[in-house]
Amino acid sequence: MTKGRGVCAAGLCTVWATTALAASDHGTAPQAVEQSRTVVQEAAKPKTGAEDRTKDQPSASEENRQLESAAPQLPLPQRAMMVAMALSTAFTKLFGVRHPVALAPMGGSAGGALTAAVSRGGGLGLLGSGNGERSWLARELAVVAENTTKPWGIGFLTWQIDVDAVEHALEHRPAAVMLSFGDPSPFAERIRRAGTPLIIQVTDLEEARRAVDLGADVIVAQGSESGGHGARHGRSTLPFVPVVVDLAAPVPVLAAGGIADGRGLAAALALGAAGALIGTRFQATTEALITPSTAAAIVEGHGGDTERNSILDIARGSRWPSKYTARTLGHPFLDA
Ligand SMILES: Cc1cc2nc3c(=O)[nH]c(=O)nc-3n(C[C@H](O)[C@H](O)[C@H](O)COP(=O)(O)O)c2cc1C
User: Fold this and answer.
1) Torsion, CA 177, CA 178, CA 182, CA 185, rounded to 10
2) What atom in ligand 1 is closest to the CA of residue 19?
3) C-alpha span between 154 and 36 (Å, rounded)
4) Model confidence pLDDT, tens digit, residues 232-244
5) How far is CA 215 from the centre of its chain?
6) What is the C-alpha to C-alpha distance for residues 81 and 90, in angstroms, rounded to an integer?
7) Strand, helix or coil at 70?
C-alpha cells in the first residue's frame, strides 16, 4: 500500500481504518452482513470428526439444504426459521433484526445508503450523524426512508452535540440512538423518555459503569483495534469485551474493534457479546459515502499500515477530547 493514498485534497484528511481487507472482500454492505452470518453459522454448528470439512467444504446453501433435510417433517417456513434463528441474541430480539450485526455510525461515511443497506441486509444500520448537522441529516434521512422499511438508528459524537440535536433526531422515530465519546448523561433521560432504545459506546470500565447507571439498552465495548477514534489508553477487543459483558449483565453488549468477517463475529459471540458493531469493513462497501480512492486505500491497506495519534485532530483544529486518539492509515503528514 502506498502511504497517503486516498487522502483528501487539503492534505489533512486521511483514511480512518483498522483491519486489512483483502481486495476480494470489497462489495456491498448486504454482502458483508451475509458473509458474517454464513461464517458464524458454520462456526456455531457442532462438528464431529466425520464432519471435519477442511477439504471440499460445502457452500452455505448446501449447508442450509443439509439442515433442512435434517428436519423433513417441518414445513418449509419453519425449516427456514431454524436457519435464521441460529444467531438469535438479546440484540436481535431487542431490535427485531435477523443478524447480530450493527453498522458503526461513522461520521460522514455511514450515510443513508449504507444505513439502509445494512438494515435491508438484516443488521441494524446506524446513520453516522457526528455533530447532528441539520442539512446533512435531512439529506441522509431521506435516503434511509426511501431505501428501507427495516429498523435503523442514528449515532452522535456526544461531545459535539446539544439536546436540540437529539430532539431533532427523535422526531424521525429512529429504532435507536447511539452516543459515543463523551458524557452521555445530559441526553440519556430524554432518549429513554421517548421510548427509544439507547446504545452507548464505551472505551473503558468507568464509561461502562456510567452507561449501566444511565440505563443504556445496549452497550458497545470498543477495543483499541477500532478504526476511527478510540481510547488513547484503551484495551484490546479480546480482553475488554468479556469484562464489560460481566459488568453490564444483563444489558446486552456489542463488541467493536477489528471485526471484519464471520470469524470476528463468532469470536465476539464466544466472548459473551450479543453481536458486533462493525465500522471499517462497512466503510469499504459501495454504499459508503467515501471517495473511490479512499475505498481503494482501505481495501489495499494492511493493519500494520495504521497508527494511532492526535496529530490530525490538532492539525485540523478539531476539539476532540484528548482522551481519544484516532487510528488512521499512514500519511506523509504523520512522518514529519
Ligand atoms: C471512519 C470511521 C469513522 C467513525 N466515526 C464514528 C462516529 O462518528 N461515531 C461513533 O460512534 N463511532 C465512530 N467510529 C468508531 C466506530 O463506532 C467503531 O467503534 C469502530 O469502527 C469499530 O472498529 P472497526 O472499524 O475495526 O470495525 C468511526 C470509525 C471509523 C472507521
Assistant:
1) 40
2) 26
3) 22
4) 999 999 999 999 9
5) 21
6) 17
7) coil
Is it the case that residue 14 has pLDDT exceeding 60? Answer: no
Note the pLDDT of residue 332: 74
Q: Is the CB of residue 256 less than 8 Å from the CB of residue 290?
A: no
pLDDT-based confidence at residue 44 (cuts at 50, 70, 90): very low
Phi, psi angles (nearest 5°) of residue 184:
-80, -5
Which residue owns the Cα nearest ligand 1 atom 13? Answer: 106
Determine the distance separating the centroid of ligand 1 and the alpha carbon of 193, expressed in angstroms. 27
DSSP 27: B
Q: Whose CA is nearest to atom 15 of ligand 1?
A: 228
289 CA distance to ligand 1 middle (Å): 14
- Ligand 1 atom nearest to 257, measured from its CA: 23
State whether CATH 1.20.1290.10 applies to domain 27-43+80-283: no
Pure H helices in 172-279: 185-193, 205-213, 237-248, 262-270
Q: What cell numbers appear for 208 in the block? A: 461502562
Chain segment 102-137, per-residue pLDDT in tens: 999 999 999 999 999 999 999 999 999 999 999 999
pTM across the whole model: 0.81
Mean pLDDT of the chain: 82
- Top-confidence residue, 21 or 312: 312
Nearest residue by C-alpha to atom 6 in ligand 1: 106
Ligand 1 atom index nearest CA of 18: 26
By most ligand atoms within 8 Å of CB, the mutation choice from 16, 106, 204 for ligand 1 is 106
Q: Do 307 and 330 contact (CB within 8 A), yes or no?
A: yes
Ligand 1: distance of its center to the CA of 21 in Å?
16
Pocket of ligand 1 (CB under 6 A): 16-19, 104-107, 109, 128, 130, 155, 157, 180, 201, 222, 225-228, 256-259, 277-281, 283
Hey, what's the torsion of the CAs at 167, 161, 33, 94, to 10 degrees? -40
Q: What is the pLDDT of residue 21?
A: 38
pLDDT at position 140 over 70: yes
Q: What span, in angstroms and rounded, lies between the C-alpha atoms of 169 and 35?
A: 31
